[in-house]
Amino acid sequence: MNFREKAAQRRAAREARRILVGQRAREVRSQVRTQARALGAAPDKAAPGTFSRLYASRDEALQVFEDAEGHLTSVNAARFA
Protein backbone atom coordinates (compact mmCIF):
# COMPACT_ATOMS: atom_id res chain seq x y z
CA MET A 1 0.00 0.00 0.00
CA ASN A 2 1.47 3.31 -1.02
CA PHE A 3 1.40 6.68 0.71
CA ARG A 4 -1.62 7.98 -1.23
CA GLU A 5 -3.75 4.97 -0.39
CA LYS A 6 -2.88 5.26 3.30
CA ALA A 7 -3.68 8.96 3.26
CA ALA A 8 -7.03 8.25 1.60
CA GLN A 9 -7.82 5.64 4.27
CA ARG A 10 -6.96 8.09 7.05
CA ARG A 11 -9.22 10.75 5.49
CA ALA A 12 -12.07 8.26 5.19
CA ALA A 13 -11.63 7.18 8.81
CA ARG A 14 -11.61 10.81 10.02
CA GLU A 15 -14.77 11.57 8.04
CA ALA A 16 -16.51 8.49 9.47
CA ARG A 17 -15.58 9.55 13.03
CA ARG A 18 -16.79 13.08 12.35
CA ILE A 19 -20.15 11.75 11.16
CA LEU A 20 -20.51 9.48 14.20
CA VAL A 21 -19.64 12.29 16.61
CA GLY A 22 -22.19 14.59 14.95
CA GLN A 23 -24.91 11.95 15.16
CA ARG A 24 -24.15 11.27 18.82
CA ALA A 25 -24.19 15.00 19.62
CA ARG A 26 -27.62 15.37 18.00
CA GLU A 27 -28.93 12.39 19.98
CA VAL A 28 -27.63 13.80 23.27
CA ARG A 29 -29.09 17.27 22.57
CA SER A 30 -32.44 15.71 21.79
CA GLN A 31 -32.39 13.64 24.99
CA VAL A 32 -31.45 16.65 27.12
CA ARG A 33 -34.23 18.77 25.60
CA THR A 34 -36.77 15.98 26.12
CA GLN A 35 -35.77 15.56 29.76
CA ALA A 36 -35.79 19.31 30.37
CA ARG A 37 -39.27 19.64 28.87
CA ALA A 38 -40.50 16.74 31.01
CA LEU A 39 -39.18 18.51 34.11
CA GLY A 40 -40.56 21.86 32.99
CA ALA A 41 -37.06 23.34 32.99
CA ALA A 42 -36.84 24.32 29.34
CA PRO A 43 -39.00 26.97 27.71
CA ASP A 44 -40.36 26.34 24.24
CA LYS A 45 -38.25 27.73 21.43
CA ALA A 46 -41.32 29.50 20.09
CA ALA A 47 -41.92 31.35 23.36
CA PRO A 48 -40.03 34.64 23.57
CA GLY A 49 -38.14 35.54 26.71
CA THR A 50 -39.58 37.97 29.22
CA PHE A 51 -37.20 40.79 30.03
CA SER A 52 -37.60 43.96 32.03
CA ARG A 53 -35.29 46.93 31.75
CA LEU A 54 -33.67 47.78 35.06
CA TYR A 55 -31.31 50.54 34.02
CA ALA A 56 -30.55 52.77 31.05
CA SER A 57 -27.78 55.32 30.83
CA ARG A 58 -28.73 58.94 30.15
CA ASP A 59 -28.01 58.57 26.45
CA GLU A 60 -29.51 55.05 26.51
CA ALA A 61 -26.33 53.65 24.99
CA LEU A 62 -26.05 51.08 27.77
CA GLN A 63 -29.01 49.19 29.16
CA VAL A 64 -29.36 46.45 31.77
CA PHE A 65 -32.15 43.89 31.55
CA GLU A 66 -33.38 41.14 33.89
CA ASP A 67 -35.13 38.02 32.61
CA ALA A 68 -37.93 36.12 34.33
CA GLU A 69 -35.41 33.91 36.16
CA GLY A 70 -33.42 36.83 37.57
CA HIS A 71 -30.45 36.72 35.21
CA LEU A 72 -28.95 40.11 34.37
CA THR A 73 -27.78 41.14 30.92
CA SER A 74 -26.16 44.38 29.85
CA VAL A 75 -26.66 45.51 26.27
CA ASN A 76 -24.80 48.06 24.20
CA ALA A 77 -27.73 49.65 22.36
CA ALA A 78 -25.48 50.75 19.50
CA ARG A 79 -25.44 47.11 18.39
CA PHE A 80 -29.17 47.30 17.62
CA ALA A 81 -28.70 49.99 14.98
Average pLDDT figure: 83
Global shape: elongated
Task: Give the distance, in angstroms, between the N- and C-terminal Cα atoms.
Answer: 60 Å
The H-and-E topology, N to C, reads as HEEE
The tally of strands reads: 3
Structural class: alpha+beta
Tally of distinct domains: 2
Biggest sheet features: 3 strands, antiparallel
Helix content: 40-55%
Rounded Rg:
23 Å
The count of helical stretches stands at 1
Strand order of the largest sheet: 1-2-3
Q: List low-confidence stretches.
A: none
Structure commentary:
The protein has two domains: 42 residues; 37 residues, no CATH class. It is built from one helix and three strands. Helices cover 46% and strands 21% of the residues. Strands 1-2-3 form a three-stranded antiparallel sheet, with no helix packed on it. It has 81 residues and is an alpha+beta fold. Strand 2 and strand 3 form a beta hairpin. It is elongated.
